[in-house]
Amino acid sequence: PAFDLVVRNGRIATAADVFACDIGIRDGRIAALGEGLAGREEIDATGKWVLPGGIDSHVHISQPSGEGIVMADDFASATRSAALGGNTTVLPFCMQESGTTLRSAVSAYHAKAEGECYVDVSFHLIITDPSESVLGQELPALVADGYPSFKVFMTYEGLALTDRQILEVMEVARQTRALVMVHAENYDIIRFLTDRLEQDGRTAPRYHAASRPIIAEREATSRAISLAELSDVPLMVVHVSNREAMEEIRRAQAKGLKILGETCPQYLVLTAADLDGLNMEGAKYVCSPPPRDPASQEACWEGLQQGVFATFSSDHCPFRYDDPQGKLTPKGRTSFRWVPNGIPGVGARLPILFSEGVVKGRIDINRFVAVTATNHAKVYGLYPKKGTIAVGADADIAIWDPELTRTLTHDALQDGSDYTPYEGMEITGWPVLTMVRGRVVARDGVLTGAKGFGQHVPRRL
Ligand code: DUC
Ligand code: ZN
Ligand code: ZN
Ligand code: ZN
């Protein structure tokens, strides 16, 4: 046979097309699209969708998250869940810790990932200390080495940059043609409201949402866009949760600015009411920005439908719930202020969007592929090696059964957390096979890949 592996009889969708043909795979790449291809091995995809493997360009793995707090996933468990959820590449962050170099952060995360991953991995940077040497030497060198995207924070103790510092980072991004990603929430609004809520004894997890209102996100989004416009750089506004922030991005795009947006499953299917759980259960939904209300969910759908949002990512940031090193540290029990921000989602992201989006008719299959794979590859510099089904591309493929209906449960996700915020959702449409570079890494809910098969992929923009 001419090919190592052939996927037969499926319906293939890319971001642009739908077509029926066989896929011939050789040496980990797509070598042919055509009729009647023969392979040493064959996979029959009759009645299934054959899609580019999901790319999740916003996940946090093994990031330090404060004293006594441990992220629930290491690279093995996060990429295992990713594979089971139809993903073939994830983009986690290398976070600079204050007083240390960016290069040392990059080395540290590579060491954590080495030999551990089930799917391919490519790193963004998080800049917390834009010192002269970071801006002058480290960043340009790292962009050239394959890390052309970095996140800055406008809020959080120890992470937030001033507007001046953001401008300095953007200046380097402009010189190196890199992409800045921004966490846009107004730090002082959040600090002020948090203090007032605590003074009033409002410390339960539900008040997390009240402490970070839409206005705080809208204002910071508008300011970040202004800084990017001044700097003449593209900007990715991550985890957009509501209409007002989405409209800021839409307006900038209409002006011709290269402002990109991302939304996440929590903003489509959760609301602030989920934080109202009995006792401390609401902590399971504490993430930032917080889930909002049904009108905000509608706006986020609109952003996906109309292309305001280029990408749909999980913002996987897992902490165990029932764990003194997770959501409920001794301090976390005293106030929402100390509950670590973030929720798991790397395994649930694609089934949720397929079921709520494609099956329910909110988006078509091409849009699904665009916002879950192709646009991630294009925006972050992995295209066309990753993110599409084309001759020459890596054979990163997910086969979906559009009719399989199952209840979403944490146990099936196999991440390192002890819950999913999406427990009990009825989902129609599941990935039944995930293939990374021609190797089947998950099939029918069972992990078949090998730890360490996943490789680091340098990027270029
Ligand atoms: N921002 C993220 O992107 N992830 C988790 C927490 C946060 O604030
Ligand atoms: Zn963020
Ligand atoms: Zn995040
Ligand atoms: Zn479980």
Automatic annotation (TrEMBL):
The keyword Hydrolase applies. NCBIfam families: D-hydantoinase, PRK13404.1. Pfam families: Amidohydro_1. Its cofactor is Zn(2+). The modification N6-carboxylysine is found at residue 151. It comes from Xanthobacter tagetidis. Its EC number is 3.5.2.2. Carbamylation allows a single lysine to coordinate two divalent metal cations. GO terms for cellular component: cytosol. GO terms for molecular function: dihydropyrimidinase activity; metal ion binding. Keywords: Hydrolase, Metal-binding. This is Dihydropyrimidinase. Belongs to the metallo-dependent hydrolases superfamily. Hydantoinase/dihydropyrimidinase family. Residues 49-441 form the Amidohydrolase-related domain.
